[in-house]
Write a structure and sequence with these properties.
Layout (H helix, E strand, L loop, with lengths): L1 H16 L9 E2 L5 E2 L1 H4 L4 H4 L7 H6 L1 H9 L11 E5 L12 H14 L3 E5 L6 H4 L5 H21 L4 E6 L4 H11 L4 E5 L6 E3 L2 E3 L3 H10 L5 H10 L12 H11 L22 H26 L10 H6 L4
Parallel strand pairs: 3-4, 3-5, 5-6
Antiparallel strand pairs: 1-2, 7-8
Helix pairs in contact: 6-13, 8-9, 10-11
Length: 324
């Protein structure tokens, strides 16, 4: 109980300290919210140009790029907004990442609400658990680096100002973290969440249970009816394998590194009854965008040295900003 209470306290403290600390030169929109777009838009100005930069010649030069962005849904004022990559490895057949397209949309919508433009990319993902023992495993083994390369390619190719990545299964957890470190990007990851355990005959089940049951059946210790029940009940919904296997272990490590908000690696992916995205995980989507906004602003402050900052040195704040 003490550990749970401490985690909740740390998470609440982190959420409070990671609210955006705005530049003294910020303007305000009609609804009264602060607008730090010019301070945050550092890299993506190379893609869109910016009237606010004062470089009219470069603004004209980017006419062709903006024309295609208009075709993708941009409005005139969007070109002054910072661009944030949202990278979510997705596969409809993979329970670990099955909800990532929806999670990416949630993250993107929150970024847009905060005055950014979200570029959503969905790299490929291969499940170890589904392909092991088949030729497909040869592709799963190398997919980690493919995922990292895909994310880096999009993020660097579009010169986005910051990045939020979503990780889930064995390959996507490291695959979404590697490009942030490789390119020294302003970024943070969000764990998609673990699945709920299954149950049969009063015993808890997880994604490893069918393999154990297969062994028991092969040894003559389990009949086909029980084997089928274990097969059908072990994974009751979306999310990563419900045990301290590779995915949940790595998500915990990533949180300890300060590359995920405190507490987000322990949230379930979905509601057990409806298999809809868990309400707490949706809240994670909102909080991670606030944290990313702050990280981007902090990196801007560090690079320009023209800021008025309010620094707090709590342990939680220090851990969460390990790589900023």
């Amino acid at each position: 109980m003490f550990a749970v209470a401490s985690l909740r306290s740390a998470r609440a403290s982190a959420a409070q300290h990671l609210r955006p600390r705005l530049l003294t030169t910020s303007t305000h929109t009609q609804d009264g919210t602060a607008n730090t777009n010019n301070a945050l838009k550092k890299r993506s100005v190379q893609l869109t140009g910016s009237k606010a930069s004062g470089d009219e010649g470069y603004w004209v030069k980017r006419t062709g790029a903006r024309a295609q962005l208009y075709g993708a849904g941009f409005k005139a004022d969007d070109f002054e907004k910072p661009i944030v990559t949202v990278a979510a490895p997705y596969m409809s057949l993979n329970m670990c990442n099955q909800k990532f397209r929806d999670l990416a949309d949630e993250v993107a919508a929150e970024l847009e609400r905060q005055g950014c433009k979200a570029f959503v990319t969905l790299p490929p993902v291969i499940s170890d658990g589904q392909t092991m023992g088949t030729p497909g495993m040869r592709y799963s083994l190398v997919s980690r680096d493919l995922i990292a390369d895909c994310i880096e390619t999009v993020h660097e190719g579009y010169m986005a100002d910051a990045i939020i990545t979503l990780g889930g299964c064995d390959k996507t957890n490291p695959g979404v973290l590697m490009p942030i470190a490789r390119a020294n990007s302003v970024g943070i990851t969000l764990y998609g969440g673990t699945s709920h355990p299954g149950r049969y005959q009063g015993r808890g089940l997880n994604a490893g249970s069918p393999f154990e049951a297969l062994g028991a059946h092969s040894a003559g210790n389990m009949d086909m009816d029980d084997l089928l029940e274990v097969e059908c009940r072990s994974c009751p919904g979306s999310g990563t394998c419900s045990g301290m296997f590779t995915a949940n272990t790595m998500s915990t490590c990533i949180e300890a590194l300060g590359m995920a908000l405190p507490g987000t690696s322990t949230r379930p992916a979905v509601d057990l009854k409806s298999n809809a995205i868990d309400a707490n995980k949706l809240e994670d989507c909102r909080e991670v965008t606030t944290c990313q906004h702050t990280r981007t602003l902090a990196r801007t402050h560090t690079r320009t040295h023209t800021h008025t900052a309010h620094t707090r040195t709590t342990n939680t704040h220090t851990r969460t900003h390990t790589l900023t």
